[in-house]
Design brief:
two-stranded parallel ribbon; metal-binding
Amino acid sequence: MSTLVDLGYENVGDGFHHPVKKPAEGELTEAQQTDNKVVRGIHGVCERANSLLKTTFKALRRVSLDPSRITKIAAAALVLLQLE
């Protein structure tokens, strides 16, 4: 499964999908521009959800649990947030 990341994770290996940088001389192809728009759109939605969770549930700001456990906690918090 591919994971969407920002440019800070460039060149970390397979399985990570990040925006394509504009080459020094030239422009991005139309396919690369479209791909970057999709990545930016999804990234924006995820950042907003993360912000809402962290501001609403202060316990999620500094969590040092196992990633699978925090995923379950964040999912439950998101359900509570949507019910609100």
